Amino acid sequence: MKVVVIGGTGLIGSKVVEKLKRWGHEAVAAAPSTGVDTITGKGVADALLDADVVVDVSNSPSFDERTAMNFFQTSGRNLTEAEVGAGVRHHVALSVVGTDRLQESGYFRAKLAQEREIKASPIPYTLIRATQFFEFIRGIVQFSTEGDTVRLAPSQFQPMAADDVASEVAEAAVGEPLNGVVEIAGPESFRLDEAAEKVLRFDRDTRRVIADPKAPYSGATLSQNTLVPSPGARLGATRLDWWLTHVPPPPELTASPKPIAETVL
Questions:
Q1: Contacts of 43 (CB under 8 A, 6+ apart)
Q2: Distance, CA of 181 to CA of 95 (rounded, Å)
Q3: What's this model's pTM, rounded to 2 decimal places?
Q4: What does the chain look like in DSSP terms, one character per residue?
Q5: Which of 23, 50, 72, 260 counts the highest number of beta carbons within 10 A?
Q6: What are the backbone angles phi and psi of residue 93, rounded to the nearest 5°?
């Protein structure tokens, strides 16, 4: 089976490509750095030639609504046109748990528009909504920091390891289209501020975390369950404590006491 992974050189995409190849499939990492640009359309048709499945884990370069909306809509139109021309039989896309509940945020309005375009496309699809990744907790802390204080809403969330996300995406790619939405999450539930505190203490970062119900998250106000998956969500196996002790922090953290910037996917 030939699977083209849009965003295939990123955090999730590179793991998806690796897993698919290990399972004996032909997996193509498609990204601007490999000559495939879904915004301009350059290289897309060639990359999709003889493809059975397209996996889209690409992301907007900015949280700004105009930029994100343009990215997802333009990329989506170009992909759909190329998929129809290539006879692709399954489109798998990665989204975010709570997207429909985060509509105060311009970025998540753009994500919801992306989901709607996928559903309206003639290509059979599977939409995977994932909770926040462990790899992004440090970034969530960073954009919630003022001076030495981190303000985060005491909302429940169920983060998961990027490797578990990639496994679910890869399995969906080799399965049949669901023409529906699957939610995936980590095995443990935390309050957002408590998980941030746990990571900061592991990093020996002295910033103080304050539980603030009014603290914004990507421009939206969180309720208790905004980021929580629906009952029946598929759960990854990796726990946060294990991940902290087995996955090295990114180079940016090693070189500086400040965590890396956050991205959603």
A1: 30, 34, 35, 36, 37
A2: 10
A3: 0.92
A4: -EEEEETTTSHHHHHHHHHHHHTT-EEEEESGGGT--TTT-TTHHHHHTT-SEEEE----S-S-HHHHHHHHHHHHHHHHHHHHHHT--EEEEEEETTGGG-TTSHHHHHHHHHHHHHHHSSS-EEEEEE--BGGGHHHHHHHTEETTEEEE---EE--B-HHHHHHHHHHHHTS---SEEEEEE-S--EEHHHHHHHHHHHTT--PEEEE-TT-EETTEE--TTTBPPPTT-EE-S--HHHHHHHSPPPHHHHH-SSPPPP---
A5: 72
A6: -130, 145
Type of residue found at 44: V
